[in-house]
Task: structure prediction
Amino acid sequence: MPSLTIPFTLLRASRYANPGSEADILPEVYGDFALGGLSGPIPAVLIDDVNWVYCAAAHAVEAITTVYVDDVAQSSGFTSSVSNNYESQGVIATIDFTSQPTGVVTWRGRGKQSGGVLVTNPITQLEDLLLTRGGFVAADFEVSDLETARTVALLKDYQLAWVVNDERQVAEWLTEWLFNVAGAWRVTGSDRLVLLADDGNIPTPDQITVNIVASRDCGGDEEVTISGNVDHLVNALTVHYLWSWSFGQASSRIITEEDTISKNGHLGTEIRKGVTLKGHRRARDVAAWADVIFLRQAFRHRRNGAIAEFPIIGPKFLHGVPGDWITLTWPWGPRTIGESSFTQHICKVLAVRHELPGPGAKTTVEALLTGESLLTSQGF
Amino acid sequence: MPDQVRLAWQEKRIAQEVMLPLVRIRTPKADRVFGFVYPGVGEILSGGFFDEDAFFDEELFFDEGGVVLDEGARLLEISPIEESHRSFDTAILGSFGQAERSLVIVRFDNSDQALSQWVGEEYLLNAEAYLYFTFPGLVVTDSYVKRTGRVRRWVLSKDVLTLEIETQ
Result:
């Protein structure tokens, strides 16, 4: 698998005969920028300062709907092309001005297609970016996880939009991209990339990797702790979205996303946090994302968001990895109304620490409580 | 422990006139009051605990009925309370002047698992917390040290519930 600590191999203006600035990066444009936000969210790059040709995207796009010069929409004086093999350097999208534009050129429209269809699924977008500019091949992905994440994004109806035109490390992009779908990534021991997206659902019994019983698997009940931290608590969000990649700032924000039950429960206290979702351009995507975050971290049911930490004695958990669903049974766990014991509580593994050598070999697991028990959620 | 034995033990403890801490945690449902000895022992220990000039409006809560869920001799340990001008969060520039903010760690006995239920049923994070250090016989509102705070973190382990309280 290629390194994740280097930038994407993005195209630069230097490949053309008369660029404005040779070092300028040609933008990779994914998703629908046609609506929402202010003026032109996508910067264009001057690639011919003799004929005043700008690169709109480093690949063919679905549409260039509006072109702006210094934030003013242009109705004439240019020709845009969604697919142009300019100077025989490969197909890009261009904006060709008849005379020198008098300011910064930006545009809005719809980005890269696949099979004639606009790519809006964030996981498919990321996969395409890694394959075309990250040096990845299909075998570098953990296929089943990739398809699961793609399906989650599809079912949540996430339609995100991105412009990639900087030299941030691939790992940074992965983190931000997946943060926008409440997801995560990791690299497996066999050097494959795992992409995860969280749908906010409680897993079914067949998705549970292992059932941990503290007295049996942890070497006793003493080794287990469950903790709740106010740093993890959030019940109101200020979400900045509709990011303008031209101006480097969000065009709008949503302040109404909140978890009322959690707010009321915590003595009416609002624990508000601000986030910027650069990939989001629709309020419904923001709402879907916020639902997942609240479900995991609002402590709506007191326990969802708490973290269990416990050792596993022996090799039982050697194959356990972050992202796995497990259950925990521990008599001292937090019990809620009508619950006689803390039994088979569903947790998501956050971290696994292996202490391998020697007779005291053990694995310490950190897992996020969902607040649901396998018994109650499945109607037992 | 039989009641008589318990009371005798408590009275002996009180007779030593050590300073006694009380920790009161307020959740939307009810308060719990924890001490090294049974906080509800009465006039000897906390005669003025429910005075109307208390830190907060007791009557408001008692009007609603049954708001003190538990007064238990559950307090196992309480960390020192530090009073300082040091910044609580060293990552925040210019936060000197947050006087008296500190983190107080208290540990409660949970061998009967009653607090496991408390944690599971009530919104404990960010809940209001009140700390009193007082001498036996003094009304609580005349405590030597009084602090209000919020619960930052709870940790359940076998038999023990630990609360980290950020005082303000």
